[in-house]
Amino acid sequence: MEDFTKQFSNIEIYKDKSIAEYAFAQVGGIVDYLAFPKNEREMEKLLVAASHEDLPVHVLGQLSNMLISDQGVQGLVIITSEMKKIEINGRDVIAGAGIDMISVSEFAYEHALSGLEWAAGLPGSVGGAVYMNAGAYGGNTADCLKSVVALDRNGRPTVLTKKKLGFSYRNSGIQKNDYYIIQATFELKPDQPDEIRRWMDEFNLRRIDKQPLNLPSNGSVFKRPSGYYAGKLVSDAGLQGVQIGGAQLSTKHANFIVNIDHAKTEDYLNLINLVKHTIKEKNGIGMELEIKMIGKGFTEN
Fold first, then answer.
1. Which residue among 69, 114, 170, 224 is the active-site one?
2. What angle do CA 253, 255, 261 make, to 5 degrees?
3. Which pLDDT score, from 0 to 100, does residue 298 have?
4. Is residue 207 annotated as part of the catalytic site, yes or no?
Protein backbone atom coordinates (compact mmCIF):
# COMPACT_ATOMS: atom_id res chain seq x y z
CA MET A 1 0.00 0.00 0.00
CA GLU A 2 1.24 3.48 -0.86
CA ASP A 3 2.03 5.64 2.17
CA PHE A 4 -1.38 6.33 3.76
CA THR A 5 -0.21 9.69 5.16
CA LYS A 6 0.21 11.24 1.70
CA GLN A 7 -3.56 11.52 1.35
CA PHE A 8 -3.76 14.18 4.06
CA SER A 9 -1.94 17.44 3.44
CA ASN A 10 -3.70 19.35 6.25
CA ILE A 11 -4.11 16.65 8.90
CA GLU A 12 -1.44 15.87 11.49
CA ILE A 13 -0.60 12.24 10.77
CA TYR A 14 2.51 10.09 11.20
CA LYS A 15 3.76 6.75 9.91
CA ASP A 16 5.48 4.21 12.20
CA LYS A 17 5.15 6.39 15.30
CA SER A 18 5.73 5.39 18.93
CA ILE A 19 2.60 5.89 21.04
CA ALA A 20 4.26 5.68 24.47
CA GLU A 21 4.85 9.44 24.70
CA TYR A 22 1.10 10.07 24.41
CA ALA A 23 0.02 7.46 26.96
CA PHE A 24 -0.44 8.23 30.66
CA ALA A 25 1.41 5.04 31.58
CA GLN A 26 4.18 5.92 29.10
CA VAL A 27 4.21 2.45 27.58
CA GLY A 28 3.34 1.08 24.15
CA GLY A 29 4.99 0.30 20.84
CA ILE A 30 4.93 1.59 17.28
CA VAL A 31 1.63 2.19 15.50
CA ASP A 32 1.35 1.96 11.72
CA TYR A 33 -0.38 5.34 11.40
CA LEU A 34 -1.11 7.89 14.12
CA ALA A 35 -3.42 10.85 13.40
CA PHE A 36 -4.61 13.90 15.33
CA PRO A 37 -7.73 15.36 13.65
CA LYS A 38 -8.81 18.83 14.77
CA ASN A 39 -12.49 18.54 13.92
CA GLU A 40 -15.29 16.30 12.68
CA ARG A 41 -14.47 16.88 9.01
CA GLU A 42 -10.86 15.74 9.40
CA MET A 43 -11.90 12.68 11.36
CA GLU A 44 -14.46 11.84 8.70
CA LYS A 45 -11.76 12.00 6.01
CA LEU A 46 -9.53 9.67 8.01
CA LEU A 47 -12.29 7.13 8.55
CA VAL A 48 -13.37 7.15 4.91
CA ALA A 49 -9.79 6.66 3.72
CA ALA A 50 -9.14 3.90 6.27
CA SER A 51 -12.31 2.12 5.18
CA HIS A 52 -11.23 2.38 1.53
CA GLU A 53 -7.80 0.90 2.39
CA ASP A 54 -9.38 -1.71 4.72
CA LEU A 55 -7.24 -0.49 7.62
CA PRO A 56 -8.19 -1.39 11.20
CA VAL A 57 -9.11 1.76 13.16
CA HIS A 58 -8.76 2.61 16.84
CA VAL A 59 -10.02 5.95 18.17
CA LEU A 60 -8.47 7.00 21.49
CA GLY A 61 -8.60 10.05 23.73
CA GLN A 62 -6.17 10.90 26.53
CA LEU A 63 -4.96 7.26 26.83
CA SER A 64 -5.44 7.51 30.59
CA ASN A 65 -7.18 4.14 30.92
CA MET A 66 -5.54 2.34 28.01
CA LEU A 67 -2.71 -0.17 27.77
CA ILE A 68 -1.00 -0.43 24.37
CA SER A 69 0.94 -3.52 23.30
CA ASP A 70 4.75 -3.36 23.24
CA GLN A 71 4.43 -4.80 19.72
CA GLY A 72 2.43 -1.77 18.61
CA VAL A 73 -0.88 -1.42 16.83
CA GLN A 74 -1.75 -2.39 13.28
CA GLY A 75 -3.66 0.08 11.15
CA LEU A 76 -4.75 3.62 12.00
CA VAL A 77 -4.85 5.05 15.51
CA ILE A 78 -6.76 8.32 15.82
CA ILE A 79 -6.16 10.41 18.94
CA THR A 80 -8.90 12.99 19.47
CA SER A 81 -6.91 15.26 21.82
CA GLU A 82 -7.15 18.21 19.39
CA MET A 83 -10.96 18.05 19.25
CA LYS A 84 -11.47 20.39 22.21
CA LYS A 85 -14.43 22.57 21.27
CA ILE A 86 -16.75 23.29 24.20
CA GLU A 87 -19.87 25.43 24.46
CA ILE A 88 -22.99 25.95 26.53
CA ASN A 89 -26.65 25.88 25.56
CA GLY A 90 -28.86 26.65 28.53
CA ARG A 91 -28.17 23.85 31.01
CA ASP A 92 -26.39 21.71 28.43
CA VAL A 93 -22.61 21.59 28.09
CA ILE A 94 -21.56 20.40 24.63
CA ALA A 95 -17.98 19.13 24.51
CA GLY A 96 -15.68 17.68 21.86
CA ALA A 97 -14.53 14.10 22.32
CA GLY A 98 -10.91 15.06 22.94
CA ILE A 99 -11.27 17.61 25.73
CA ASP A 100 -10.39 16.26 29.16
CA MET A 101 -13.09 15.84 31.78
CA ILE A 102 -11.22 18.11 34.21
CA SER A 103 -11.68 21.01 31.78
CA VAL A 104 -15.35 20.15 31.24
CA SER A 105 -15.92 20.09 34.99
CA GLU A 106 -14.25 23.51 35.33
CA PHE A 107 -16.32 24.88 32.45
CA ALA A 108 -19.51 23.69 34.14
CA TYR A 109 -18.44 25.31 37.41
CA GLU A 110 -17.76 28.61 35.62
CA HIS A 111 -21.36 28.54 34.40
CA ALA A 112 -22.78 27.54 37.81
CA LEU A 113 -23.85 24.10 36.58
CA SER A 114 -23.69 21.03 38.80
CA GLY A 115 -23.38 17.34 37.93
CA LEU A 116 -19.71 16.95 36.98
CA GLU A 117 -18.04 17.68 40.31
CA TRP A 118 -16.92 14.03 40.55
CA ALA A 119 -14.88 14.56 37.35
CA ALA A 120 -12.87 17.51 38.71
CA GLY A 121 -9.67 15.44 38.79
CA LEU A 122 -10.47 12.85 36.12
CA PRO A 123 -7.72 12.96 33.46
CA GLY A 124 -9.59 11.07 30.74
CA SER A 125 -11.26 12.58 27.69
CA VAL A 126 -14.96 13.12 27.08
CA GLY A 127 -15.01 10.33 24.49
CA GLY A 128 -13.23 7.94 26.82
CA ALA A 129 -15.51 8.83 29.73
CA VAL A 130 -18.59 8.02 27.64
CA TYR A 131 -17.06 4.85 26.21
CA MET A 132 -16.13 3.57 29.69
CA ASN A 133 -18.98 5.17 31.63
CA ALA A 134 -16.22 6.64 33.78
CA GLY A 135 -17.08 7.65 37.30
CA ALA A 136 -15.84 8.41 40.80
CA TYR A 137 -17.14 9.28 44.27
CA GLY A 138 -20.67 8.16 43.58
CA GLY A 139 -21.04 9.89 40.21
CA ASN A 140 -20.63 8.60 36.69
CA THR A 141 -20.93 9.72 33.09
CA ALA A 142 -24.33 8.15 32.51
CA ASP A 143 -25.86 10.23 35.30
CA CYS A 144 -25.58 13.48 33.37
CA LEU A 145 -25.10 12.48 29.74
CA LYS A 146 -27.86 13.54 27.36
CA SER A 147 -26.55 12.34 23.99
CA VAL A 148 -23.47 11.88 21.83
CA VAL A 149 -22.64 12.51 18.21
CA ALA A 150 -20.65 9.65 16.69
CA LEU A 151 -19.27 8.65 13.31
CA ASP A 152 -19.60 5.15 11.92
CA ARG A 153 -16.80 3.21 10.22
CA ASN A 154 -17.47 5.12 6.98
CA GLY A 155 -17.47 8.55 8.59
CA ARG A 156 -21.26 9.00 8.64
CA PRO A 157 -22.61 10.91 11.69
CA THR A 158 -25.38 9.74 13.98
CA VAL A 159 -26.87 10.93 17.28
CA LEU A 160 -27.02 8.38 20.10
CA THR A 161 -29.20 9.06 23.13
CA LYS A 162 -28.36 7.83 26.61
CA LYS A 163 -30.93 5.04 26.23
CA LYS A 164 -29.30 3.83 23.02
CA LEU A 165 -25.88 3.78 24.67
CA GLY A 166 -26.98 1.13 27.19
CA PHE A 167 -24.81 2.14 30.13
CA SER A 168 -23.76 -0.16 32.96
CA TYR A 169 -20.91 -0.14 35.48
CA ARG A 170 -17.77 1.00 33.60
CA ASN A 171 -19.36 -0.05 30.36
CA SER A 172 -21.45 1.27 27.48
CA GLY A 173 -23.07 -0.22 24.41
CA ILE A 174 -20.72 1.74 22.17
CA GLN A 175 -17.95 -0.68 23.13
CA LYS A 176 -19.72 -3.34 21.07
CA ASN A 177 -20.08 -1.47 17.79
CA ASP A 178 -18.06 0.57 15.31
CA TYR A 179 -19.19 4.04 16.35
CA TYR A 180 -16.58 6.67 17.19
CA ILE A 181 -17.59 9.48 19.54
CA ILE A 182 -16.85 13.04 18.38
CA GLN A 183 -19.04 15.08 20.74
CA ALA A 184 -21.08 14.67 23.93
CA THR A 185 -23.84 16.74 25.50
CA PHE A 186 -24.13 16.80 29.29
CA GLU A 187 -27.42 17.89 30.88
CA LEU A 188 -26.59 19.63 34.16
CA LYS A 189 -28.41 21.48 36.95
CA PRO A 190 -27.95 25.06 38.19
CA ASP A 191 -26.37 25.39 41.63
CA GLN A 192 -24.40 27.85 43.72
CA PRO A 193 -20.81 28.14 42.46
CA ASP A 194 -19.40 28.00 46.00
CA GLU A 195 -21.16 24.69 46.60
CA ILE A 196 -19.95 23.26 43.28
CA ARG A 197 -16.37 24.31 44.04
CA ARG A 198 -16.56 22.87 47.55
CA TRP A 199 -17.31 19.42 46.19
CA MET A 200 -14.73 19.69 43.41
CA ASP A 201 -12.05 20.59 45.93
CA GLU A 202 -13.18 17.83 48.29
CA PHE A 203 -12.92 15.17 45.58
CA ASN A 204 -9.53 16.43 44.44
CA LEU A 205 -8.20 16.32 47.99
CA ARG A 206 -9.35 12.71 48.25
CA ARG A 207 -7.50 11.88 45.03
CA ILE A 208 -4.30 13.54 46.21
CA ASP A 209 -4.52 11.71 49.52
CA LYS A 210 -5.19 8.24 48.12
CA GLN A 211 -3.84 8.04 44.56
CA PRO A 212 -0.23 7.99 43.23
CA LEU A 213 -0.70 11.05 41.02
CA ASN A 214 3.04 11.75 40.87
CA LEU A 215 3.78 8.62 38.81
CA PRO A 216 2.65 7.45 35.34
CA SER A 217 -0.25 5.02 35.58
CA ASN A 218 -3.54 3.94 33.99
CA GLY A 219 -5.63 4.76 37.04
CA SER A 220 -7.69 1.94 38.55
CA VAL A 221 -6.67 -1.31 36.88
CA PHE A 222 -9.44 -3.63 38.09
CA LYS A 223 -13.18 -3.13 38.39
CA ARG A 224 -14.66 -3.29 41.86
CA PRO A 225 -15.98 -6.83 42.46
CA SER A 226 -19.46 -6.94 43.97
CA GLY A 227 -19.15 -6.60 47.74
CA TYR A 228 -15.41 -5.88 47.69
CA TYR A 229 -12.85 -3.18 46.95
CA ALA A 230 -10.24 -4.14 44.36
CA GLY A 231 -7.40 -2.32 46.08
CA LYS A 232 -8.10 -3.95 49.44
CA LEU A 233 -8.18 -7.41 47.86
CA VAL A 234 -4.75 -6.76 46.33
CA SER A 235 -3.38 -5.36 49.58
CA ASP A 236 -4.80 -8.17 51.75
CA ALA A 237 -3.22 -10.68 49.37
CA GLY A 238 0.18 -9.21 50.18
CA LEU A 239 0.76 -7.91 46.65
CA GLN A 240 0.87 -4.16 47.28
CA GLY A 241 4.32 -2.85 46.39
CA VAL A 242 5.25 -5.89 44.31
CA GLN A 243 7.36 -4.87 41.31
CA ILE A 244 7.96 -6.66 38.02
CA GLY A 245 10.40 -4.99 35.67
CA GLY A 246 9.72 -1.26 35.80
CA ALA A 247 6.09 -1.57 36.91
CA GLN A 248 4.81 -1.69 40.49
CA LEU A 249 1.52 -2.27 42.30
CA SER A 250 1.45 1.16 43.92
CA THR A 251 2.37 1.46 47.59
CA LYS A 252 -0.19 4.28 47.85
CA HIS A 253 -3.16 2.59 46.15
CA ALA A 254 -2.97 -1.13 45.42
CA ASN A 255 -5.37 -0.94 42.46
CA PHE A 256 -2.93 1.28 40.57
CA ILE A 257 0.05 -0.02 38.60
CA VAL A 258 2.69 2.70 38.32
CA ASN A 259 5.61 3.05 35.95
CA ILE A 260 8.56 3.60 38.26
CA ASP A 261 11.48 2.66 36.00
CA HIS A 262 10.95 2.65 32.22
CA ALA A 263 8.33 -0.09 32.38
CA LYS A 264 7.12 -2.08 29.41
CA THR A 265 3.55 -3.14 28.74
CA GLU A 266 4.75 -6.70 29.39
CA ASP A 267 5.59 -5.67 32.98
CA TYR A 268 2.04 -4.37 33.45
CA LEU A 269 0.57 -7.56 32.01
CA ASN A 270 2.70 -9.75 34.27
CA LEU A 271 1.47 -7.85 37.33
CA ILE A 272 -2.13 -8.03 36.11
CA ASN A 273 -1.86 -11.80 35.66
CA LEU A 274 -0.22 -12.17 39.08
CA VAL A 275 -3.12 -10.32 40.72
CA LYS A 276 -5.75 -12.31 38.81
CA HIS A 277 -4.17 -15.65 39.72
CA THR A 278 -3.54 -14.77 43.38
CA ILE A 279 -7.01 -13.33 44.08
CA LYS A 280 -8.67 -16.25 42.33
CA GLU A 281 -6.68 -18.72 44.42
CA LYS A 282 -7.08 -16.81 47.69
CA ASN A 283 -10.63 -15.45 47.44
CA GLY A 284 -12.25 -17.32 44.57
CA ILE A 285 -12.93 -14.01 42.83
CA GLY A 286 -12.37 -13.38 39.13
CA MET A 287 -10.86 -9.90 38.81
CA GLU A 288 -12.10 -7.98 35.76
CA LEU A 289 -10.03 -5.31 34.09
CA GLU A 290 -11.24 -1.72 34.10
CA ILE A 291 -8.49 -0.63 31.71
CA LYS A 292 -8.70 -1.46 28.02
CA MET A 293 -5.95 -3.10 25.97
CA ILE A 294 -5.28 -2.86 22.26
CA GLY A 295 -2.48 -3.88 19.95
CA LYS A 296 -0.58 -6.79 18.50
CA GLY A 297 -0.20 -9.89 20.62
CA PHE A 298 -3.40 -9.66 22.61
CA THR A 299 -7.08 -9.16 21.97
CA GLU A 300 -9.16 -6.28 23.28
CA ASN A 301 -10.85 -6.95 26.62
1. 170
2. 75
3. 67
4. no
Active-site residue among 117, 220, 224, 250?
220
pLDDT in tens, 261-283: 999 999 999 999 999 999 999 99
* Interatomic CA distance for residues 51 and 231, integer angstroms: 41
Q: Per residue in 28-57, is it b (16+ CB within 10 Å) or e — as a string?
A: bbbbbbbbbbbebebbbbbbbbbeeeebeb
Calculate Rg over the CA atoms of the chain: 19
Go through 92-126 and write b for each residue having 16 or more CB atoms within 10 A of its CB, e for each that does not. ebbbbbbbbbbebbbbbbeeebbbbbbbbbbbbbb
Residue 170 bears catalytic tag: yes
Residues belonging to the chain: 301
Is 51 catalytic? The answer is: no
178: Cβ–Cβ under 8 A, 6 or more apart, which residues? 152, 153
